[in-house]
Amino acid sequence: MTAFAELHHRDTPLLLPNAWDHASAAALAAQGFEAIGTTSLGVAAAAGLPDGAGATRDATLDLALRLGQGPYLLSVDAEGGFSDDPDEVAEAARELAAAGAVGINLEDGLGSVRLHVAKIAAVKAAVPGLFVNARTDTYWLGDGDEQETARRLGAYQQAGADGVFVPGLTDSTRIAALVKALDVPLNILYSPSGPAVTQLGDLGVRRVSLGSMLYRRALGAALETAADIRAGRTPSGSAPAYHQVEALSPRREA
Q1: What pLDDT, on a 0 to 100 scale, did the predictor assign at position 4?
Q2: Residue 141 to residue 176: CA distance in whole angstroms
Q3: In DSSP terms, which residues pair with 131 in a beta bridge?
């Protein structure tokens, strides 16, 4: 079992914050997070591209190349693998692993189960040590059908997924029932309106992701600060000093 996989088998769930650039990842690592994910929305928005449309393959690989050698374990949100060809998805996974990624998140977008199974199997065959977190969007994009969720996750487990992800699921009873039906760790997307991280751990959840929340809150804070200044108000909240942000970048030799 890899070091990253082991983080999914502890008594407390892995809280995985999601970064969108070098500074955000370095700042999170400085706060003691031993594993960090990327957020596809943050990567896409920073590049002026749509999220979830397979348009960010190059931007995602570029970010992985910059983050992959950091002092943390890196998991990459690869949307649906940036292709409907399992071989191309496997090649993207190879490149991400070569960049230093130890995990990959693959979403089904409520598309074909057979195709997603083929993608998972291709990635595991190409990079056996890469932790594949197979996401289903039955709650995120669909109506939360429990039987359909179980059907999809069962197929993804059989294909070799190391963990499964169900964003949008916040009901404690349904989470507990799903944990009991699974043979691999369950990943839940944190929601302010859902259970706290400790409660999710008590339910059996082994990984809690923050998704795009940090990116969106950072953007929201920037907008609030600009609005306060324009209105003649002193900005509220906190911000790291210039030298603290500068210190997040590797020092260059003279």
Answers
A1: 98
A2: 21
A3: 103
Rounded distance, CA 60 to CA 78, Å? 7
Structure tokens at 54: 């397979």
Global pTM reads 0.95
**Distance between CA atoms of 231 and 242, rounded to whole angstroms?**
24
What amino acid occupies position 123?
A: V
**Is residue 107 within a helix (H) or strand (E), and if so which, with residue range?**
strand 101-107
d(CA 114, CA 183): 20
Give strand pairing partners of 189. Answer: 209
Three-state SS at 209? strand
**Structure tokens belonging to residue 46:** 């920073």
Q: Quick one: what percent of the chain has pLDDT higher than 90? A: 97
CATH homologous superfamily, domain 3-246: Phosphoenolpyruvate-binding domains (3.20.20.60)
- The structure tokens listed for 105 are 């998140």
Mean of pLDDT values over 200-226: 98
Q: For 172, how many CA atoms within 13 A lie in the half-sphere containing its CB? A: 11
Say if residue 253's pLDDT is above 60: no
Q: What ranges do the domains of the chain cover?
A: 3-246
Pairing between strand 101-107 and 35-38? unpaired
- Angle at CA of residue 123, ends 117 and 127, nearest 5°: 150
Q: What is the pLDDT of residue 136?
A: 98
Percent of the chain at pLDDT exceeding 70: 98
Burial degree of 237 (CB within 10 A; 0-12, 13-18, 19+):
exposed
